[in-house]
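hey m, so remember when u said the C-alpha cells were messed up on ur end? i reran from scratch. heres the input so u can diff it against urs
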Amino acid sequence: MFIFVGPAKIRGQKVPIHQVVIQHMESKGDWVHEKTYIDKIVSRVMFSTEKNPATGIEDQRMDREYLVVLKRR
C-alpha cells in the first residue's frame, strides 16, 4: 500500500502525520512499514499569502511530502 502524506501544523506545533499513519497501520497487525520516501517540494505554489486567511497566523507552505510504503503481512 502506498500513502502520500504531507506534514501538518496545529497552532504552530508540527505533527508528524506520516509517523502516525505508520504506527496506526502497524498496530492493526496486518501491515508492516517497508520504507518512507521524502519528496522535497521546490516550487508548487498556486497562490501566496503572508497570513493564513482562516487563522490569521503566518502562512507556511509544505516543504516536503512523504510516500509511506506498507506491506501486508
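this time it looks ok to me. The mean pLDDT is 85. if urs says something different then somethings off w ur setup not the seq
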